[in-house]
Amino acid sequence: MAKVVAEAAELPKAIVRRVVKEKLSQLSGDETDMILHQEALLAFSESARIFIHFLSATANDICKESRRTTINADDVLKALDEIEFSEFVEPLKAALDEFRKKNAEKRAGSSKTNEVTKKRKIDLHAAAENGDLKEKNEEDEGKDGKEEENNNDSESLHD
Question: Which residue intervals of 4-88 are DSSP H helices?
């Protein structure tokens, strides 16, 4: 079988294999390892690639009709409807909601982490400044102590 598509345009075989095997094991209900023939894997991969191209072209048309240059998730959902794959719309919406929730949690967690990191940096900076001040104070106290000793020594000489 001749290669139709350049390797750069192919979907990763390992991912296609994993997706197909996961779906087949869900459908069959057993845990036996399904073996995919190389040509079947290529057919799945090529079919998925063509579907992605068709869906993205349709979503791009919808985007252009709205006079925008960026395709968003709603464009993809409308494109699925338009190419008569409306049964995928609801599962995709659910997956998008899940994705958005996880991203919101990550952002909230990372902003908390960033706040803690900033606070630590501020605390470290303040501690360093206080440490410098502390060292200077200790040096000054040491000088004052020596001066007092010198004063005491000179007083004892006068006695």
Answer: 13-28, 38-65, 73-82
Contact indicator for 58, 79 with CB cutoff of 8 Å: yes
Give this prediction's pTM: 0.59
Residues 6+ apart with CB under 8 A from 11: 45, 48, 49
Measured CA to CA, the distance from residue 134 to residue 129 in angstroms comes to: 8
The string of pLDDT tens digits covering residues 109-156 is 776 666 666 667 777 767 676 665 455 445 555 555 555 555 555 444
Which residue in this structure is represented by tokens 């000054």? 140
Distance, in Å, from the CA atom of 64 to the CA atom of 80, rounded to the nearest integer, reads 16
Biggest CA–CA distance in the chain, Å, is 114
Residues 6+ apart with CB under 8 A from 82: 58, 62
